[in-house]
Structures are given as C-alpha cells and as structure tokens.
C-alpha cells in the first residue's frame, strides 16, 4: 500500500515537474470567521484576511511600526496637514493605475460608511482629503495629529471607479479589486475563502499560486485539521494543544494584547467592596494609594504566567511589550511581597483586611476566568478576602462599561484587555490611563476612572507632538507616572502562536495576523 | 379535520407571537451590542451614531413594534455583524444543517427500526442483547466526545475521512447541497454518524419496547392463530401500531437535530445554523438570534403538524373520528 502511494506521489511529482511550475497551494486553518467582504467594515479578523487583497498607504512591520506601503513617504506639510507621496507603478487588479483620486475615494468611503462597524474612530482627526497631483494626496486634520499615518494605514485602498458599492458586490467578487499580492476567488460563508495569486503585483511575486483560509473556530477542530493534513498551518495555538503538535513546528510571539486589573477610584463607596462581615464599607479602600500598592504587590505575575497561562503570555510591567513604540526598558514593577502588602494595608487602616468581588470575562481572553481565580487567592493571602464572578463577554462588557448608576462602570475590580493596535503605547495610554471623557473618547477602558492631571497633560502633549523621540519620551514618562500611582495592575501580554507542518516557516507578527506573505517554505 | 387544523394553526400563531416577545425581551436583557461593535476607544458621538443606526436608541416596546411591523412584511432585520438580512444568513446556512439532520434521521430510522423490531420480536436473542447494549452506550456517550474520538480515529490516525468542514456543493433546485457526490458525502459521514448515534439508540429502544408490547397483544395471537403469515403479520398488523410512538419520537428528534446540531457543527466546523446562532449569541447579534428562534419555532410547528398528519394515516381510529 505504502509503495503504491509512493509510486503515485512520484508519478504526480514527475507530471507536475514536466508541466513547469508546480501548483503551490497554501491551506490555512483560521480561527475567526470572516464576517464581511467589504474591507471598510471594521473587524480585526476581517482586516487580517483582506490585507491579502487590499493594501493601504502605510504598512506595519512585525512590531507594528509604520513602514512604506502604497505611500512611499509621508511628511507634515503644515501643522494640520499630512502629505503622502504614492508609490508609482502600482496597478489595481483590474489593470487601472493607482492614483491620488483612489486614495481620496477610499478614505472618504471609510469615513462615511453606514452601520456600526466603521473605521470612523481611527479617522476622527481627518477634516478633508484632497488630491494635489496624480501621485500626491493631502490629508488635512482638525488638530495636530502625529499618529495619522498609522491610523490611515488601517484603510484599504480601492479604485475610485467602484463608486457606490455595498457588501453584496464585494462578496460576489465583482468589486473585490485591490492592489494586493492575492486576488479574491471565492468565499463560502462560515466555511472558507479562496485567494489566487495576483501575477501583476507591484512587489515581489508570491510563491503560493493559491491560498485557502478554512474557518475553524474551535481549537480541537483546528488541531485535527492540521494533524490530518487538511491544512498546512493553524493560528491561535495554545499550550493546551502543544502536546498534540509534538511533530509540528510551533512559532510564537508576544502580542499587543495587555490584560490588566482596573480598580474603582472614583466612587466614595464601591459596590463590590465590603467589610469582614460582608457589610458595605463607609469608605472605598481602593481610593487609597497604599491599598492599590498592596494589591499590586500581592500579584505574582511570574506565577500567573508560569502556572495559569502555561507560558502563553509574557509578564508585563507596563502597557506595551518590548519593541513597541513607548516601551520603557528601565521600567520595572516591584516584585511580589505579601508581607509588605499586609503592612501597607495596616498602614492604610485596613489591618483586619476587607472583602471584595472581582469580575472577569470567561470567554474573551485566554484563561481569563482561571487568572481571576488565581488572583483571588493572591489577594486573599494578604488579607483581602476575594470572591470571583465570571461572565460571558457580551454580558460583562455592557455592565463593566456602563452598568453602574449614571452609566458609569459597575464593577469595583475587573479584568480587562487593551490592545496597542498601531504598535504604539499611545493607544493604551489614551484608553486605559487617561481621565475619562465621553466626548473625546479618552479613558474608555479606564474602568477604575483613574485620574491624574499630570499624566493627562503628558498624554495630551504626546498626542500632539510630531517629533518622534520627544513623543516617545513623553509617553514613557506618562506610563511611569501611572504605574507609580498604581493606576491599574498590569498582568501580562498574551502570546500569538502558530503551528505548522514541517517544511514551512512563518515570520510572526505582534498583531497575531496570519499572512500568506509571511509564510514560506523552509 | 379542518376544524382540528384550524385550531392547530391558531395555537401555533399564538406560540410564535409569545415566543417573539420572549426572544426580543430576553436578548435585550443580556447586554448592549453597541460596545461589541464599535472600536474600544470610540468617542461618545460615534457610539450614539451607531446606536441610532441600529435603532437601539428607541424604547424597547417601540423597537418591538418596529420589528413586528417589518416581520409581517417578511423582513426580520439586518445582522449587526454581517451587515446582511438575518433571514438570508439563516437560509444560506439552512441547507447544510438540514442535509446533516436528514442524513442523521435516515440513519437512525434505517438502523434503529429494523434492529428494534427484530429485538422486540425475539427477546433474549443475541441480536436483542447486542442491540440493547449498544443503545445504552448510544444514549450515554456525550456527543462532543464521540465526535472527537471519531476524528482522532478516522481522520488523524487512519486518514480516511476529512476532519471537518463541508465538501464541495452542487446546486439542486437552486439550493446548494453537498450529498450528491462521494466528495461531499465523505465530509458528511463523520458528523452525521456523531449526530445520529443518540437517535439510533433512542429509536431502537422505543421500537423494541413498543414491538414487545404489541406482539404480546391478543389480536396478534389471534391473527397468528388465523394463519396469517409471519411477514404479513409484521407488516400489516404489528408495524403500524409500533410506528405510532416511533413516528412521534422521530418527528421530535428531527426538530431536535435541526435546533441542537450546534455541538456537532462546532466540532466538525460544519457551516450550519447551529454555529451561526452560537456566534450570534456571543456577539449579541440580536436580529439573527431573534430570526433564528422564529425560524426554528416555525420548523417545530411544521414538523409537529406533519407528525399529526402521519398519525391520521397510521391510525384508522383517528381518521374515523376526524372524518
């Protein structure tokens, strides 16, 4: 039987060899299901998929730092105006050349798209997009916007000739025209997406003639697909599955997703903090810096990562991992110290401890509920008797963001996640550290409503500073100050991991994107 | 008979209405989908705009009124996640679930009924012992475990069958189906067996019990004494009476297979309705959840109706009464 199979294989190889170029097909087992064919509909997993077909002005390297894409260069022409010089010689898959009008059309389309899932939030600084000449686009902004290139880098560039198009036209392939290295071939909803190589691509030609993404949300099913040879590579691999992949290659990298604890610092009485008998406390202990410091000291991040996360995360002392813009190598949090934590509690007047309930998701982040159970034990050890309440993300999100009186966060202490999508600590700083302003959209993930005017000033200054070195310095200062205040308890950055058959390699990216362009034969 | 059908239809309409209120209010209580849709750092204005566009800024009774008005016109709303009509999404996935459920139902009838009847006619025989042992196993094995074991055995170790997904589809009367060729059937075998095992066991047990009961009755002995041949005895006198409870169970189980195939669909990455509903629930995609519940409810009502009609065909007494 085996001999027969071998003979067949050899014959097939001969035939293919005789035919010239062997058909090289890559099959990817992809966790998230594609939800929309329109590349301007916001969704992280969709963007991962559509980057193959549609490109943007600014690309991101493996650490998510901006690099030239369809724009060769960009510069600040005036304080509130960015000028992008387009790459000459780029053609859309319908043969039309890329011009500034296409860029104007695409950004304006993304800004005016109907429905809840749009990129508007990323484009909120933009006042107008204008065409200077065929290969120069000018984006004028409402305020000084140093991170505009990164934000514009989220937007797929489509040919202006598409005009008014919608989902159906993209899903059928009629409007699926980008500049990317792959062309859209077909999409079976909830099942698979087939891409074919774009032979007219402006960049280096891809080795794969075709790429198929099989959508397999459940981890065991993804593992089975790889083990049975149905796919060549799977994404979102965790240690649970590592033993099954002994004969396969596993590649991982630290991702942009930070998990952290928020602590209620804005209410004089917090709903889920009680005295030893379970009665409400007269004052909110979490408002005391000493208590927050004690909670921070109670957390053994190293143990969490080793025992709960089984190394699927990396200990974090700050907001972004090493290599990201704004990471401070010298910033270290104090090592865990239960004795010192107890002394701090006594000093704050809680020598007898207190009780609290922490709230967590149970289906959002890797090991979220288990992490909370471990955290509860760590807090209980220093005298803060902690109960855990876990909720599905859909329920948690509404209550955590606006479940309390006046549309404020409901929980006293909760586990949350923030991701530095553009590879820059300004995103977590603005979301999780900055004072909350509903009109500006700052502090949305600041569920404890930490507020320090000096930190806010540093973040605001950074957001308006064009000079990169100066901006990074400001962000580092803001981070250090917030960590010294125990604004939040950072826990770890999740890892992104892939498993693949022998003979393949992947260049991992911090956003966990699985791109055929990064997968090569060894 | 028309009297009965009319009453039945009225009851069903009421059930559908009550269910729509429950579904609508229930999913509303779970949480606000807008936070799951906009970017995490969206400003208030953007959140308000998205809320307005989805019609979630209206009071609940107005939202429901609007939903009902549109539903009467055949529009159950647009999915928040997929930006497409919820009904279209469901109908697109329905063939996958239906073909799996029908295949599983055929398997359970084709295996369960003959073995059950044989066992009922020959209590104490080796076949009866094996069949009953198997049926105990079948009702107690958890579906997800069985699915994974089948994948391990037939896909990973032996490599005979694919581990998941749906095979190539062909168009049959405008519906995409995958059971017309071996390429498609290969993909369906494992999930259908997983889905069917519980039902095979159930059908087998019920057929066996029912056959034993019927076979011991006076009229069967009388027929035998009259000299009715064994085949005719089984076919004409025993089977119809045995089939009444079996048809009830098969009908209920078919509805069950459709509504609860989600475990199997999840394990085998089968792109059916079950997977859609779970994803939609987790992402609070209200229109899809409500539309799905409505569609499944209508299916249940329809299947129960068909079962009632089958009763009429099987039981002459009912036919006489309703005539």
List keywords for this structure.
heterodimer; A: 522 residues; alpha+beta; D-Maltodextrin-Binding Protein, domain 2; Dipeptide-binding Protein, domain 1; Dipeptide-binding Protein, domain 3; 3 domains; 12-stranded mixed β-sheet; 4-stranded antiparallel β-sheet; 15 helices; 28% helix; globular; disordered N terminus; B: 323 residues; mainly alpha; two-stranded antiparallel ribbon; 14 helices; 2 strands; 76% helix
Taking Cα atoms only, what radius of gyration of chain A do you get, to the nearest Å?
25 Å
- Proportion of beta-strand residues of chain A: 15-25%
Q: What global shape of chain B is seen?
A: globular
Number of helices, counting only DSSP H or I runs of 4 residues or more of chain A:
15
Q: List how many beta strands of chain B DSSP finds.
A: 2
The largest β sheet of chain B comes out as: 2 strands, antiparallel
Question: What's the number of structural domains of chain A?
Answer: 3
Order of helices and strands of chain B: HHHHHHHEEHHHHHHH
Fold blueprint:
The complex is a heterodimer of chains A (522) and B (323).
Chain A: H1 2-18, E1 25-30, H2 44-50, E2 58-60, E3 66-68, E4 71-78, E5 81-86, H3 100-112, E6 126-133, E7 136-141, H4 148-152, H5 167-171, E8 182-188, E9 192-197, E10 210-215, H6 219-227, E11 233-235, H7 239-242, E12 249-263, E13 273-274, H8 289-298, H9 301-308, E14 313-315, H10 338-347, E15 354-361, H11 368-381, E16 384-391, H12 393-402, E17 413-419, H13 426-433, H14 453-463, H15 468-484, E18 488-500, E19 504-506, E20 519-521
Parallel strand pairs in A: 1-10, 1-11, 15-16, 15-17
Antiparallel strand pairs in A: 2-3, 4-5, 5-7, 6-7, 8-9, 9-10, 11-18, 12-17, 12-18, 13-15, 14-18, 19-20
Helix pairs in contact in A: 8-10, 13-14, 14-15
Chain B: H1 2-30, H2 34-37, H3 44-53, H4 60-72, H5 86-121, H6 126-140, H7 143-157, E1 170-172, E2 175-177, H8 182-215, H9 218-226, H10 230-259, H11 262-267, H12 273-282, H13 286-314, H14 316-322
Antiparallel strand pairs in B: 1-2
Helix pairs in contact in B: 1-13, 5-6, 5-8, 5-10, 5-13, 6-8, 7-8, 8-10, 10-13, 12-13, 13-14
